[in-house]
């Protein structure tokens, strides 16, 4: 199952469209019902919605079926069909028919860089998003350096290609020069219309490696965020590195050598959803 998991973040300068792109991810993966969908759904704080910016990082789990969205994607385990009807030369072969995406939407403002750095420590890949009308900005470079420090797989993406004043090619050239890559490797999307987003989801499967670790080893987890709930107490957001955890088990916080009982385990969809067990898988 670990081979089907992709942990990644979206990083960008402020107002370059991270949360809007995350909305399209949630729509295409059917994570949120259409009737419940709203703009910038991952910005849950009142202040975020009032100011139109992301302040707190927000994790969410999604399920992506690539072969449903893209006729150029085939599943490797359908061997008999391949013998009868071999795929075209430019068709990509993927080993699984679905993938679990764990996304962390991050802030773009310089004042919240610490939020970004903690999120980057919990993933293997980063979508580096740049506004086609504004080009590479200060936080584009700052966040890129943070991602490179964590040795993450970087996926360069030009966003807002639907804008009348968009300079998509110029921005792609600028982004390619920054990363030292061929401009052909840069993807083009519109977080508003959804153009190019399915191809980006497929690129995430190819470019971002699955998580490493062993479920049979003792539990080790990285706490990358936390919050206090008046009814449930402290809720910690963790990236499980090895092992697993269940409700009722006792765990030790190594930084303070304190033992606590786990009252509930779950994940975000983006609402909290309880499950029996959390593991690296």
How would you summarize this macromolecular structure in one to three sentences?
By secondary structure, the protein is α/β, with parallel strands linked by helices. It has helices spanning 18-28, 46-51, 66-69, 79-84, 113-120, 138-149, 168-179, 197-207; strands spanning 5-12, 58-64, 73-75, 92-94, 99-105, 125-131, 153-159, 187-188, 220-229, 233-242, 244-246, 250-253, 258-261, 266-268, 272-274, 277-279.
CATH superfamily of the largest domain: P-loop containing nucleotide triphosphate hydrolases
Distance between the termini: 5 Å
What is the mean predicted local confidence, pLDDT? 82
Number of domains: 2
Strands, total number: 16
How many DSSP H or I helices? 8
Low-confidence stretches: 77-87
Record the strand order, biggest sheet. Answer: 2-5-1-6-7-8
Tell me the Rg in angstroms.
Answer: 19 Å
Biggest beta-sheet profile:
6 strands, mixed
Using the coordinates shown, work out and report the CATH topology of the largest domain: Rossmann fold
Q: Please trace the helix and strand order, writing H or E for each element.
A: EHHEHEHEEHEHEHEHEEEEEEEE
Secondary structure category: alpha/beta
The helical percent reads 10-25%
CATH top level class name of the largest domain: Alpha Beta
Shape: globular
Strand content: 25-35%
In the CATH classification, which architecture of the largest domain applies?
A: 3-Layer(aba) Sandwich
């Amino acid at each position: 199952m670990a081979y089907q998991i992709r942990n990644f973040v979206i990083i960008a300068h402020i107002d370059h469209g991270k949360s809007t792109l995350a909305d399209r991810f949630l729509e295409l993966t059917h994570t949120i019902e259409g009737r419940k969908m709203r703009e910038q759904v991952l910005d849950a704080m009142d202040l975020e919605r009032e100011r139109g910016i992301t302040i707190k990082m927000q994790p969410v789990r999604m399920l992506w079926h690539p072969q449903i969205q893209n006729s150029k994607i085939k599943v490797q385990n359908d061997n008999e069909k391949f013998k009868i009807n071999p795929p075209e030369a430019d068709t990509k072969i993927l080993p699984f028919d679905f993938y679990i995406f764990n996304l962390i939407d991050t802030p773009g403002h310089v004042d919240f860089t610490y939020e970004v750095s903690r999120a980057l420590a919990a993933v293997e890949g980063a979508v580096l998003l740049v506004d086609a009308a504004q080009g590479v900005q200060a936080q584009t470079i700052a966040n890129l350096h943070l991602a490179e420090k964590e040795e993450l797989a970087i996926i360069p993406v030009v966003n807002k290609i639907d804008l009348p004043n968009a300079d998509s090619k110029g921005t792609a050239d600028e982004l390619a020069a920054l990363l030292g890559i061929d401009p052909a490797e840069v993807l083009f999307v519109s977080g508003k219309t959804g153009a190019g987003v399915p191809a980006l989801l497929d690129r995430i499967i190819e470019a971002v490696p699955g998580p490493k670790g062993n479920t049979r080893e003792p539990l080790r987890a990285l706490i990358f965020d936390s919050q206090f709930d008046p009814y449930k107490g402290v809720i910690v957001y963790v990236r499980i590195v090895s092992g697993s955890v269940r409700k009722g088990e006792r765990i030790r916080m190594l930084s303070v050598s304190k033992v606590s009982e786990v009252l509930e385990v779950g994940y975000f969809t983006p609402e909290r959803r309880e499950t029996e067990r959390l593991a690296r898988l």
